[in-house]
Amino acid sequence: MSNDPTHQFLVNKIVPIEIGGIDFSFTNASLFMVATVAAGIGFLYFTTGQRGLVPSRMQSVSEMSYEFIASMLREGAGSHGMKFFPFVFSLFMFVLTANMLGMVPYFFTVTSQIIVTFALAMLVIGTVVVYGFYKHGFGFLKLFVPSGVPGALLPLVVSIEVISFLSRPISLSIRLFANMLAGHITLKVFAGFVTSLSALGAVGVAGAILPLLMTVALTGLEFLVSFLQAYVFAVLTCMYLNDAVHPGGH
Amino acid sequence: MSVTLASAESTPFEIAQAETPADTHETPADAHAAQPAGEVHTETGVAHGGEHASGVFPPFDQTTFASQLLWLAITFGLFYLLMSKVVIPRIGGILETRHDRIAQDLDEASRLKAEADAAIASYEQELAAARAKGNAIASTARDEAKAKADAERAKIEASLQDKIAGAETRIAEIKAKALADVGTIAEETTAAVVEQLIGAKATKAEIASAVKSAAGE
Predict the structure, then answer these.
(1) What angle do CA A224, A225, A230 make, to 5 degrees?
(2) What's CA B39's distance to the chain center, in Å?
(3) How far is A89 from A97, CA to CA, in rounded Å?
């Protein structure tokens, strides 16, 4: 392994596939997407296999994540938003599992690729826009016109609302991507200090203690960030879906 | 010289070998332009071309975007499908069952409580009835006893009254008889006293009138 901190984000082809001149190879990123699906679904499926009336520890983890997202969605988008529960729960579990898998050394972090987070964010915004127009027609545009704003300020407020709506997919995707990327680079840099300093002899080994402690602390922090970013992604998804379910009802 | 020539001769062959996989158009021209140092130049050129894909910051490498999008669509689609068809109904079912079970148990508990309340109420009622019945029995018994005692007392009183009346009449009879006897006794006594005093017998009539007059005074 090289010491280059960005090496971990390299996408390598495993099975080259090319369709119509476009590269659709099965890469290490694809492999870890598959692993994310297998781990996420596998955990939820096998821990609930007992269907215990009194849950085991692992079963209650699955139930807690279910009820966590369910209550989040109910609070965020009301009972009408519950039809999006499979979507939000899938997003949360996918992002969480991908983040957590990325914490394993030598594993590829799916969510550290901007295209992946951007695609997920566009999926959310696309769902909001499509459902909003399908359900409310042009009434969905009331989203951009807050009630109780004086007429003179209306053009300004509407343009601000439109810009903030358009920036949502960008902020949603970059937040997740940047957090995962920065965290992994920081970890790699501090871990790199440990190896390069300890190669310098006794003084270097003594000096390597500090970055080693930093690496341990950062690993803990990164686990927190992994969960937190999945949570934030899900919370914001609930908020945006609320706009699709209740436009104008802020 | 011969070494350089050999290397220069072998260069096009090497270029052909090296360049076929890569699609750069400038390197052959480069190699032609700088023939003496051709080998070195070509190799750096090839190395450069190979590095180009990873030269950009990996997450911004657009050549991987199409593949990542496709595989994300496949995997996330599968994830969503398995979630909505298998996992969510299963966990939802477990939670539903538990919820129902708890509600059922609560219903059962409230039913049992109502039953217990009813049992307590009927017990209280029966207790009150028994107490009332006991009171009634006691009071009738008391009344009966009292009535019987009253009757007995009245009977005894009546018989005592009879006896008193009988005794009183007898006393009156005896008194009257005694009073009647007093005259004759006085006459006899008087006759005896007179005989002793004067030695003569007084007539019966005289004595009787004397006694009468003495009794009259």
Answers:
(1) 105
(2) 97
(3) 12
Return d(Cα A151, Cα A149) in angstroms, integer.
6
Cα–Cα–Cα angle for A247, A249, A250, nearest 5°? 110
Residues near A47 by beta carbon (within 8 Å), at least 6 away in sequence: A56, A58, A59, A61, A62
pLDDT tens digits for B104-143? 999 999 999 999 999 999 999 999 999 999 999 999 999 9
- Give the mean pLDDT of chain A: 90
Chain A environment of B94 (Cβ under 8 Å): 48, 51-52, 55, 59, 63
**What secondary structure does DSSP assign to chain A, as a single string?**
--S-TTGGG---EEE--EETTEE--EEHHHHHHHHHHHHHHHHHHHHTTT--SS--HHHHHHHHHHHHHHHHHHHHHTGGGGGGHHHHHHHHHHHHHHHHHHTSTT---GGGSHHHHHHHHHHHHHHHHHHHHHHHGGGGGGGGS-TT--TTTHHHHHHHHHHHHHHHHHHHHHHHHHHHHHHHHHHHHHHHHHHHHHTT-HHHHHHTHHHHHHHHHHHHHHHHHHHHHHHHHHHHHHHHHHHHHSTT--
CA A39 – CA A93 distance, rounded (Å): 10
Q: Is the pLDDT of residue A1 over 70?
A: no
User: Between chain A and chain B, how many beta carbons pairs sit less than 8 Å apart?
Assistant: 129
**Contact (CB, 8 A) for A49 and A38:** no
**Unique residue bearing structure tokens 């006899």:** B188
Residue B84 and residue A34: Cβ atoms within 8 Å? no
* Chain B nearest-CA residue for A123: B73
Q: What is the pLDDT of residue B20?
A: 42
pLDDT in tens, B161-202: 999 999 999 999 999 888 888 878 888 888 888 888 887 777
Strand pairing class (A13-15; A22-23): unpaired
Chain B residues inside the 8 Å CB shell of A119: 68-69, 72-73
Distance in Å, alpha carbon of A142 to nearest chain B alpha carbon: 31
Please give the Cα distance from B62 to B91 (Å, whole number).
40
pTM, entire model: 0.69
Q: Are A140 and A244 in contact (CB under 8 A)?
A: yes
Can you tell me the ipTM of this complex?
0.89
User: Which residues are within 8 A (CB) of B181 and not within 5 positions of it... i.e. 6 or more apart?
Assistant: none
Q: pLDDT digits over B58-86, tens only?
A: 888 888 888 999 999 999 999 999 999 99
